[in-house]
Amino acid sequence: MTNDFTAEAEQLTGVCRNIFGDESRWITADGYPHSLALSIIDSIYSTGSNYQPVINVVNEYRAYRRAQGGDADRDGTVELLATFKEAGGSGGWAELVNNRKPAHTKANAPLKAEVIRQAAEVLQNELGYTTREDLHDAYAKDEELTALKEAWLHLPSQRSGVTFNYLLILAGFQSVKPDRMVIRFIEEHAELGGRRLTPTEAAELIKKVAELYPTQPRRLDHVIWRHVSGREVFREEEVTSIVGEPAK
Predict the structure, then answer these.
(1) Is 137's pLDDT higher than 80?
(2) Is there a smaller number of Cβ atoms within 10 Å at the N or the C end of the chain?
(3) CA torsion 82→85→87→90, rounded to 10°?
């Protein structure tokens, strides 16, 4: 495999063009344009091959906030952390959203709800990021979002960077979430000779294919993910996006 992925990117671009065609027909989704809270929740719960539980968690949180007279789609870390306090901690919050999934499979793993709580506290108390706009202000000063990435990767079971990349996607940045299904698609179609890709290599390759296509890396990553997860890829003629559905 070449160091710059040129041959592999060209091969994968041809495959993607044959499968996906004109990007104007792709189903797109917008993440959470005004909600850092939902971006955090979705990113932490998103790992795994079945997205329906994530949708359920988001809907439960939305319903809870709606019952309070709030709006989850405009919540930041202040509002999110308030729901943890109201629920009596991470265990109660997990019950609130009807999902007690652990962060990993080893014994004594913390709940994903606890990771969400820690993430919100780190963003708010250590970095001073309480809204989605704060992240974009930080990006204007540091496109690598170095402080955010370092803090996020130190959260329980988040060292791989997959959920960090997904957080950026949900918050509106042109990042790529190289999850297992997308990596498997790349390995199958890019003629890698059996070599396994790291998430970083997969993300780099997706970005190069997007340049060649041409399209945005986020859009290409999303359409590949829809394809390999068995979801509809192409929109009806009058539909431009899936309202209320996160990017992945």
Answers:
(1) yes
(2) N
(3) 100
CA dist., res. 12 & res. 177, Å (int): 17
- Domain holding 199, by residue range, is 6-29+177-228
- Nearest Cα neighbor of 84 from 131, 127, 53, 40 is 40
Q: State the Cα angle at 50 between 46 and 55, rounded to 5°.
A: 60
Q: Is residue 244 part of a domain?
A: no
Summarize pLDDT for 81-116 with one digit per residue, the tens. 999 999 999 999 999 999 999 998 888 999 999 999
pLDDT, position 29? 65
> Could you say which DSSP state residue 196 is in?
P
Same-domain check for residues 101 and 44? yes
Residues 151 and 184 in one domain: no
Q: Residue 163 is inside which H or E element, if any?
A: helix 162-170
Confidence check: pLDDT of 180 > 60: yes
**Beta-bridge partner residues of 111:** 102
> What CA–CA distance (Å, rounded) separates 39 from 164?
10
- How many domains does the chain fold into? 2
CA atoms within 13 A on the CB side of 136: 13
Q: What is the distance, to the nearest Å, from the Cα of residue 15 to the centroid of all Cα atoms in its chain?
A: 24
Which residues make Cβ contacts (< 8 Å) with residue 193, sequence separation at least 6? 1
